[in-house]
Design goal:
Number of strands: 10
Order of helices and strands: HEEEEEEEEEE
Structural class: mainly beta
Shape: globular
Largest sheet: 10 strands, mixed
Number of helices: 1
Radius of gyration: 15 Å
Helix content: under 10%
Amino acid sequence: MIVRLASLVLAVLLLSCSDDAGSGIPTTNNPTLPTGLTNSLRVQGAGYSNATFRGFTADSATIAQDDDDGALLGFSGLTPTNVVFSVAIDLPDRRTGSYSLGTSQSTSLSMQIGTVSYVAVDGTVEVLSWSQVIGQNVTGVFSATMTPFPGPGDPISVSAGQFTIKRSLAR
């Protein structure tokens, strides 16, 4: 599951920013997409004090892919200090409802902030709407306590997380 999440985070990151040569590989932090609050979260810890992370606004910066019976959701954007971040949520079902996060749960949340990876050790994801139509939006909210992966490091607290992501088929 961690490998799938890491792949999703990398895919979102590659879609959302590029280097000066335009290769799609983020070697510098020069994202070309504007940010908004549709896909956003607040972070406390690891040098952040109630900081708002804003997702890129273009559809190419979000992913909601069907995956077997579940789905992978993801988006990327910028921290207040212009560091690129990516969020990946792995859900066991394609439906609305509340999902618990943690090491023994089938739902997971991971985040990459610059070069540091985090995984949720507890928290919740609530899917508020799940369109059955490909191309329509999946929306929800989330919060979590996350620790660096593979460690060591200080945990971060994520609150007021929200997403509105266009649904697509698995590739």
